[in-house]
Specification:
With about 425 residues, the protein is of the alpha/beta class. It is about 45% helix and about 15% strand. It binds adenosine-5'-triphosphate. Adenosine-5'-triphosphate binds near residues 128, 158, 161 and 425.
């Protein structure tokens, strides 16, 4: 567990930050005075978050007198109005960042994670996995974090492409960073794509009662994450390419172009080379999106990550539910023996089911084996299990029938593409087979 030193004399601010960072998995040493912090610093923390004005002195003055080895620890100052000059001076002396109060707690959390993570890439800091493959991917993402190069993440559904994209966004430590805007390209009806991507002006079409910022605009200074990018129809691929090349675009109905500066990340569970060869994906767009290509291996090819992921997910469930949860050895053995075709997503839903089925917080039997416990003695299964099982089989069959085309399958099933994608995700269906 990483240690965070929090230097803050305000009891409300101190307590709320302590609780928040404990939820984030840090051991928090909360110091109300600089003298206390002097002692705590012997514990080699992963990061320090410090207020400027403390009862026994000005933290920025104290900081510049600390030994260089201590000043090398990632350090963030929380400055009040008027003390920005102090913070700037401290940054010259080696502090990493400052945030001006009132600040966005989410931004502070992301910043501390980034700084603590870049300082010490030890195993217990892993974010994506502990297997050599995932450690390499994490190292690669850390390397490209300071550049704005486009990254294409590929891999089966549920391997953690979006988690990797969010990690890359979090690694951007700029304090004026923009949003992470995630777009599921498969879930937007074709007729709305242009309006959703580029936005529109009031009166651009009937129903446009007010102007609307599109995804590209909302991602300004941040990240535009295009999930299921292979599902973009040809016309939209051409328009997106133009916007990326020219670094500006027109809102529908606008006379003036809008400029937006963002990092583009894309993800796909299809083989884009096959898509290009079949003429379904533009080659020029592919090279724009795939400056760096990162394939994420399926979970079954990196068994070291199964237990690590399960423990990480369980820790999150413990924090959410506020009750202790643990996995028995039998449960863990069963976890390790499965091949997780639906990858981390299947593992997550498996754990959630097991948590629901456990009375005392000990996850002992895997969900399907545990289901009879909630079933009457005559062996009748709960209706929901049967309905969901039938739905899974039916969707697989329909996909097979429509040769894997999500659009045609959705039409045949009489549901929207978005609903079909959501159901495929829920049932961890990655392909018709
Ligand atoms: N390293 C991780 N730590 C914790 N949870 C993870 C991790 N990787 C994946 N998960 C969980 O697994 C699920 C699937 O992850 P994610 O959405 O990133 O996969 P994906 O590859 O983008 O899937 P899709 O292709 O279907 O969009 C999510 O619930 C996510 O929280």
């Amino acid at each position: 567990m990483k240690t965070l030193i929090l230097i803050e004399d305000d009891p409300i601010m101190g307590e709320s930050l302590q609780q928040r960072f404990e939820i984030e998995g840090f051991e928090v040493l909360w110091c109300r005075r600089l003298a206390e912090a002097d002692e705590a610093l012997q514990r080699t923390p992963a990061a320090v978050v410090s207020d400027v004005r403390l009862p026994d002195g000005i933290a920025t003055d104290w900081f510049v007198r600390l030994p260089a080895t201590i000043r090398a620890i990632p350090w963030v100052f929380l400055t009040g109005y008027g003390s920005v000059d102090d913070a700037v001076a401290s940054m010259r002396a080696g502090a990493r960042e400052y945030l001006t109060k009132p600040f966005d707690v989410e931004r502070l959390v992301a910043l501390v994670h980034t700084l603590a993570c870049s300082a010490d890439p030890a195993e217990d800091d892993a974010v994506l996995g502990v297997s050599p493959a995932m450690r390499r991917i994490e190292a690669m993402l850390r390397k490209v974090a300071t550049q704005r190069a486009a990254v294409l993440l590929s891999g089966e559904s549920g391997v953690g492409k979006e988690v990797a994209a969010q990690y890359l966004h979090a690694l951007d430590a700029r304090t004026d960073k923009g949003e992470f805007v995630a777009v599921n390209c498969a879930a937007i009806p074709e007729t709305l794509l242009e309006a959703e991507f580029f936005g529109y002006e009031k009166g651009a079409f009937s129903g446009a009662q007010r102007s609307h910022r599109g995804y590209l605009e909302r991602a300004h200074r941040g990240t535009l994450f295009l999930d299921e990018v292979a599902e973009l129809p040809a016309s939209m691929q051409a328009k997106l390419l133009r916007a990326l090349q020219e670094k500006c675009f027109f809102r529908l109905g606008a006379e003036r172009a809008t400029h937006s500066d963002f990092r583009i990340l894309a993800a796909t569970n299809r083989d884009l080379y096959t898509e290009m060869n079949a003429g379904r994906f533009r080659e020029d767009l592919f090279y724009r999106l795939a400056v760096l290509r990162i394939p994420i291996p399926p979970l079954r090819e990196r068994p070291e990550d199964i237990r690590w992921l399960a423990e990480r997910m369980l820790a999150r469930l413990v924090a959410e539910q506020g009750r202790p949860l643990a996995m028995s050895e039998t449960f863990l053995r069963d976890l390790m023996a499965r091949d997780w075709r639906g990858n981390a997503r299947e593992l997550q839903s498996w754990l959630e089911q097991a948590v629901v089925l456990s009375d005392n917080g000990l996850l002992d039997a895997p969900p399907t084996d545990a289901a009879p416990a909630a079933t009457p003695s005559d062996g009748i299964k709960p209706l929901q299990h049967v309905v969901e099982g039938a739905e899974r089989v039916h969707i697989r069959r329909a996909l097979q029938h429509c040769e894997g085309s999500v659009g045609k399958t959705a039409e045949a099933l009489g549901i929207s593409r978005k609903t079909l994608w959501e159901k495929m995700k829920k049932h961890a269906i990655t392909s018709p087979g």
